[in-house]
Amino acid sequence: MSPALPAAVRASNPGATLIDAFLSASAAGIIELLSPYPPGWGGTLLLGLLHSIEIALGATCLGLLIGTGGAFGKLYGGPVVRDLLAVYTTIVRAVPELVLILLLYYAGTDLINQALTAMGYQRVDISGLAAGIAVLGFVQGAYSTEVIRGAILAIPQGQIEAARAYGMSPGLMLRRITLPAMLPFAIPGLANLWLIATKDTALLAVVGFYELALATRQAAGVTKAYFTFFVAAGVLYLILSLVSNLLIGRLETWSRRGMPSLKEAR
Amino acid sequence: MAGEATIISAAARTSLWLRPHRIALILIAIGLVLSAAFFMRWDWLPQYYEMGLLGIWRSLWILAVTCFVGFLLAVPLGLAQAAGSFWFSAPATTFCTVIRGTPLLIQLWLLYYGLGSLFPQYPWIRESWMWPYLRQAWPYGVLALTLSFAGYEGEVMRGAFAGVPKGQLEAARAFGMSRWKIFRRIWLPQAIYRALPTLTGETVLQLKSTPLVATISVIDIFAVSSKVRQDTYLTYEPLLLLALIYMTITGILVFAFSKIEARIPNKIG
Question: Does domain A41-255 bear CATH number 1.10.3720.10?
Answer without folding.
Answer: yes
